[in-house]
User: What shape does this take?
Amino acid sequence: MRPRERIEAVLKGRPADRVPWALWRHFPGDDLEPRRLAEAVIAFQGRFGFDFAKVTPAAGFMAEAWGVRLEPKGDEEGTRRYLTRAVDAPAGWRRLPVLDAREGVLAREVEALRLIRKGIPAEVPVLQTVFSPLSVAKNLAGDAWISHLRDDPEALLAGLDRIAESTGAFVRGSLAAGADGIFFATQLANPGILSEAEYRRFGEPFDLRVIRGGAPMGLAVLHAHGSPILFDCLCGYPVDAINWHDRGTAPPLAEGLRRFPGACLGGIDGGGVLRHGTPEEVRRDVRETLSGARGGRLILGAGCVIPVTTPGANIDAVARELGG
Assistant: This one.
């Protein structure tokens, strides 16, 4: 089967020739210029032959689009450190401009997507990374966002409206440039940060607005970042697959497959055995995951970006265990 056919089969609960899989990473430095990011993503996909290619823009790119300055952290994830913020008081949310995806940083990322889609075979779906409006708000205001939420919720809601409109434009621009869908990441669906009621007020309506506003859309994957997560709250989202840090937080993968009606993307210990183990240890880990999940609606992957220092031999070991 071709990658697109394999994923479609799993999403529909039909047999596939093998479990589909994908891994993704940051490309620090290269991710600040469309052609260099495209070349890096195309090379990564060509080297390992994943069943879909996730485009991973520069960390914090949405905040950067509103003028926030960042610098490389030099960490294994390839992320960046925030030097400035765009909102320092509740009144600032009402002054946020709505962004045009044809300009500035968003245009940079849409162009990278266009080049990536052009350089990857049509049989491989390409997904654009999109962050939830509330996650973007956190990055725009830093730690102050939570006090804004509690002290002046209407101001934050006004800002979320502008962020959602801008994010929706970015999604539509990415789909027009050739994306087959989106990888939608929420970083705050966490009961240690917000109650379920708070997330349903400040997170969910804007998440759904972005996801539904991308129609017609192909593949939609939801990524719930962090630990713990509001899994049941997210299970109702209109997405094809859900991805979370299943090796480090509840629910375990097998339980997630029972509770979520779509596909579950996970099962690989990206920051553990994949990064630090031997190829044989990686293969053993994959075997155990496949045995525990018992096939079904599984797409094999890590809980988040894999470290930039992950040995290529260990990624090859995943493919060999799958029979690829």
